[in-house]
């Protein structure tokens, strides 16, 4: 179970943020936004790793004392970021990957919604609750 | 099979609807236009393409470069929408791509002679928009124009705009 998930747009502006514990939201926002630099680096076509790695899932971006941060970038350059508590050893790479895939298909449904204008922050309540379900592992 | 025809019918109704709306607006201004205003139709295509591409590229590996993206448009993307692939892709490697479809779905049911050649642009405007919208969401900003010389084949010219 992850503690936080975020969606960042192609221009690096936050689109959606969801946190299990509302008190920690600010510190997680800070961590998520600082990990964008690492995503940028991983996607840079000049670096060797980017040309070899063609998967959308980027793996672990970095780990801190308290948490680990994972990234995923779609073909349309939308970034998904998941924060996992460091004490949580049960969560494997494959589970993170499948979490991201579920978020991606949720997002694709969101973009197909005619009431959502692409590029705007996501305010849909049902989207929020389904993302919460995905990161807490209740689906 | 019934699903396929639904899309064709919806598409031709969208064309009728947008053109009728344009006609009504034009009457007020009393202007005599030569070219039909297809920009609304193109815009409907643009937003469709912009949204659908998120779903279509979900299972795809990351694209290496622009040509890779265009190849995706010619194969997977075209099969998803038109149930066939583009017949010919040409490029000058400097940002101009020409996609040729020898039996374009929306023109396939028009008779082959010259009779309907002048209304044919209506049937490709939506597709130009779809291509432009999808590529815009994949960070390839471009101009898309269509060129119909003999029905039912159609060429789409994509000109990538470099900043």
Folded structure, characterized:
The complex is a heterodimer of chains A (139) and B (163). Chain A is an alpha+beta fold. Chain A has a single domain, classed as Beta-Lactamase. In chain A, 40% of the residues lie in helices and 23% in strands. Chain A is built from five helices and five strands; from the N terminus they run E-E-H-H-H-E-E-E-H-H. The radius of gyration of chain A is 14 Å and the shape is globular. Chain B has one domain (2-160): Trafficking protein particle complex subunit 3 (Muramoyl-pentapeptide Carboxypeptidase, domain 2). Chain B is 50% helix and 14% strand. Chain B has helices at residues 2-29, 39-56, 66-82, 120-137, and strands spanning 88-91, 96-101, 142-147, 154-160. Chain B has a four-stranded antiparallel beta sheet, covered by helices on one side. In chain B, a hairpin with a 6-residue loop joins strand 3 and strand 4 (154-160). The radius of gyration of chain B is 16 Å and the shape is globular. The termini of chain B are far apart. At the A-B interface, helix 4 of A face helix 2 of B.
Q: Give the SSE order of chain B as H and E letters.
A: HHHEEHEE
> Which oligomeric form is depicted?
heterodimer
Fraction of residues in helix of chain B: 40-55%
Q: Helix fraction of chain A?
A: 25-40%
Would you report the number of β strands of chain A? 5
H and E string of chain A: EEHHHEEEHH
CATH homologous superfamily title of chain B: Trafficking protein particle complex subunit 3
Would you identify the regions of chain A where 5 or more consecutive residues have pLDDT less than 50? none
Between the first and last Cα atoms of chain A, what is the distance in angstroms?
11 Å
Largest sheet of chain A: 5 strands, antiparallel
Number of domains as seen in the coordinates of chain A: 1
CATH domain fold name of chain B? Muramoyl-pentapeptide Carboxypeptidase, domain 2
Q: Count of helical segments of chain A?
A: 5
Shape of chain B: globular
Give the strand line-up of the largest sheet of chain B.
1-2-4-3
């Amino acid at each position: 179970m992850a503690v936080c998930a975020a969606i960042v747009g192609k221009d690096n502006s936050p689109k959606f943020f969801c946190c299990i514990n509302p008190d920690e939201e600010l510190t997680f926002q800070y961590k998520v936004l600082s990990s964008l630099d690492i995503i940028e680096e991983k996607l840079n076509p000049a670096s060797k790793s980017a040309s070899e790695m063609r998967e959308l899932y980027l793996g672990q971006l970095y780990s801190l004392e308290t948490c680990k941060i994972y990234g995923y970038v779609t073909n349309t350059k939308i970034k998904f970021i998941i924060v996992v508590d460091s004490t949580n050893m049960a969560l494997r790479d494959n589970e993170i990957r499948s979490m991201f895939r579920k978020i991606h298909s949720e997002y694709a449904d969101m973009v197909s919604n005619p009431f959502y204008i692409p590029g705007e922050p996501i305010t849909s309540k049902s989207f929020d609750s389904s993302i919460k379900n995905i990161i807490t592992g209740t689906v | 099979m019934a699903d396929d025809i639904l899309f064709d019918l919806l598409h031709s109704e969208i064309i009728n609807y947008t053109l009728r709306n344009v006609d009504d607006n034009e009457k007020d201004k009393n202007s005599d236009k030569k070219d039909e205003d297809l920009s609304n139709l193109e815009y409907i295509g643009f937003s469709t393409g912009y949204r659908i591409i998120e779903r279509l590229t979900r299972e795809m590996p990351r694209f290496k470069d622009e040509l890779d993206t265009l190849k995706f448009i010619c194969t997977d993307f075209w099969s998803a929408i038109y149930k066939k692939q583009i017949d010919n892709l040409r490029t000058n490697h400097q940002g101009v791509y020409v996609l040729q479809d020898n039996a374009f779905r929306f023109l396939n049911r028009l008779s082959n002679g010259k009779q309907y050649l002048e209304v044919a642009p209506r049937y490709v405007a939506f597709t130009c928009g779809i291509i432009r919208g999808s590529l815009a969401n994949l960070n390839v900003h471009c101009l898309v124009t269509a060129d119909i010389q003999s029905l039912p084949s159609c060429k789409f010219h994509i000109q990538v705009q470099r900043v």
